[in-house]
Amino acid sequence: MNSFQYVSPHTVDSAVSLVTDHGRFLAGGIDMLGEMKEYIASPRVLVDVKKLPATRAVTPGKIWTIGANVTISEIEQHGELKRVFPGLQQAAAEVGSPQIRNVATVGGNLAQHSRCWYYRHRDIQCLKRGGNTCYARQGENRYHSLFTGNPCISPVVSNLAIALAALDAKVIVRRGKDEVALTVPDFYAKAWDNPEAHHSLGPTDLILRVQIPDDGRTCAYKQISEKASFDWALVSCAAAAKVDGNKLSKVRVVLGAVAPVPYQVPAAHDYLEGKELSDDVATHASEIILKDAVALDHNGYKVPIAQALIRRTLKQLVG
Amino acid sequence: MPNWPAKPSVVGGNTTRIDAPAMVTGAAKYSSDVQTSGWLYGMIYRSRWPAAHVTSVNVDKARQVPGIKAAVVEREGGRTVRFYGEELAAVAGVSEQACLDALRAISVEATPLPFVVKEEIAKDPDSPRVWPDAPNLADPSVKEQGDVDKAFAEAAAVVEGFFTTPVQIHHPLEPHGNTVSVTKDGVTCWASTQGIFSVREGLASYLDVSQEKVRVITDYMGGGFGAKFGPGAEGGLAARLSQAAGAPVKLMLTRFEQSLAVGNRPSSFQRIRLAANADGKLVAFDMDAYGTAGIGAGTASAGGGGGAGFPAPYIYTVPNIRVKQASVAVNAGEGRAFRAPGHPIASFGMESILDELAAKLKMDPVEIRLRNDSSQIRKREYEIGADRFGWKRKYKPPGSSPGPIKVGVGCGGATWGGGGRGSQAEAQINPDSSVEVRCGTQDLGTGTRTLVAVVAAEVFGLKPGQITVKIGDTRFPPSGASGGSTTAASVCPAIFDACTNALQKLQETAGIADARGANWAGACKKLGVNPLTAHGEWREGLSSRGVGGVQFAEVEVDTETGFVKARKILCVQDCGLVVNKLTCETQIQGGIIMGLGYALYEERVMDSTTGFVLNPNLETYKLPNFADVPDIEIILMEMPERGVIGVGEPCTIPTASAVANAVANALGVRVSSLPITPARVLAALGKAAKPGGSV
Question: Does A58-112+154-213 carry CATH code 3.30.70.3450?
């Protein structure tokens, strides 16, 4: 990697002022070190945000707060969180390996970059890296998106984002002098349109915490990978709803690894509102969600996986 | 003729590795741990083009990078590179970062050439040629016996299939590499190798020095599966860097480099027709196959060739045979021997089509094997295994498992040589009753050190922990390279011979009729001051060759997501006299896990647009994790009368076949390409969405 400066500020103000356009925030470093070693990213300054105040706690309440520096392991092992947001806990448990989860943070998981094997290759300047071509479109696209609003087809791979989207969580971001609350769709919206974007954050935007309303809904998360553990999701699915017997309300169903954003279809939510869950209802919901899927040469198998995961995740909600 | 003791006390038991404490505490220094005085890091600059005319490689600026002590060009003058990752230059410096910076300061002038990286495209005569003077698709080797067409025409049942296997990359836990120190007095190389003497020969020849000037040391190494016999391009470059810098150079490859340029298992594309009588007796076999060993036909080596050919119709006797096999060159790193070269490929095609035939004839897969396999050993293994596995109870006709998550079972067989050859050894008995046994072999991680201790302890009536084993140094008596499952069968007889000779000498010198066990210390004391040494060598009669081996697999397949979970693999394996049950079984477990990787996960992915390997890391080149490993049960069919036979290779051969057959049995349709990924399962079930259309 290229040489860089390292600073470790103790306030958010200094963190934001130190990072500039040429720096990057450093938390767990899991994603960024990989990019730096491959010369995909060569920041001039790394601003270590791990010492920033009020970023390391999980605070229960009517609205739960999870600090940006909370590790994935802490989410995975938080007893009360597991009870209230089982889907979020499950999404955390599927991240990487125990070693990675011990170091990786909530902020880093949300802001991580594309895992597309063209994007990550040291000698390929793809569209996402400012080149002219998305090599995956005509190439090896088995792990790529079924939905996108731009020529890049690399999907979002954050597990937490999928569960947090289903829970209507907000990501609190320091932007300039302000704190802004982004919905998960806001947080990724830019990646839908802009091939170079991984999310909607600017270079000096800093994730501070995540807020999750405890509104009496339950949630579930499932993913399918090629291996049983320590593998990226081929497709993931999170769902949240208020469950009354078999009846669902305030439903969210979100797919991961099929689009540059956590993918959800409002029409499916409307359809499921107030419905008694049955196999037919779940199947119809999955059809609505996947209606606009466009399969590429090698990723058509993601469609049946997504259908199965939608059905199974909804079923898990009603227990 | 010498003989193993009829009632051994140590041999055949469960001896824990004598070096286990050193390994788990880190006291054991692997080749990549070696830090000899004044050492430098070495790194290789590799071609960024899959094919190009290189006109110049300039390392002047690399030499100016702070901390860099040497930079060399791999080959002077113009040259053609033929794959992404081919070695062009190398640097040595005081830190990893200095070397990385230096690599980026190297400039290369080159004219890119057209290239082709996919076998199906490369075999087209209009594709760019990898070698200008020859078509990519070589003339096939053809083998024909009997009247094939007539036999097919008259057969009761004919099945046809097209089976493909991927290029499998060598990913031992410790990558390839060496520390090389070249001085005016000689050359020392700490190598991660399967053959210290083959590395010595390679380095001496590369540097044009006499072999007695070259010492190779491999105290501990982190695995080799057929691709670590010579010093490699990386060893040669490390030697030249050491010469230029006047310091030892450690050049260990990265995972990225492992994926490109250290050899691999060739791919295969096999079109097979198979015919049988109504009673399931095979009558005709017809195969047209090709595969790639990258830019070349593959480098032959001790474990067998690295070429694209493989035995067919593998372990079965078929009277009428037509086999056409060809290799096709592509612009990618070349094939090299890979644990049981050719056999897993051969097994997958043949065992798959055989199960198709059994299904067509409504025969039990074990039954059709018993009917067509002429090996008495394998027949017994099938019977033992089927009984233990509960085959009769578990086997159901293909696709009959109810529900979305289907269960299936399958089986397959293997054959391998695994015989011994001319190893030498030396035993030294010290007056204080300690024992040193020396042999110029190397431990690949299979437990060779422990086998040496077990055999010596057996002969001397001692415990394995009382034996000091010295291996992995070319100053010790020569032994062969560890390939072809030959190490145990080569080394153990030589140790036995040396120790038997030493014991005899001790008994003569001490005047004690039986110096073993309780008499040991007293006998040794009588030596006075000087230790006693005795030489020994491999002899006929203590080892033999030729094993079978069968495996049974039980899997569950989620027909909605395509996910395959291996539940159980049962292996029945013969390997003659079992020297140490514990390490024998762990080696078989390793072979099965590697076979599982071949079945379900591993595949080199080449990109046609760039010519690059797209999965040059363990994130996307998928190896099994512990969570993927099923319940593994091993039944050793002991045949001590045969002497020692190696087991490293046969145990990996039929795993993928058994798993693939189990998946086909579960689904009722066959996934005929490895690895069997969710994508392939769903495609075989006709569930994957077609490209372009919405759902």
Answer: no
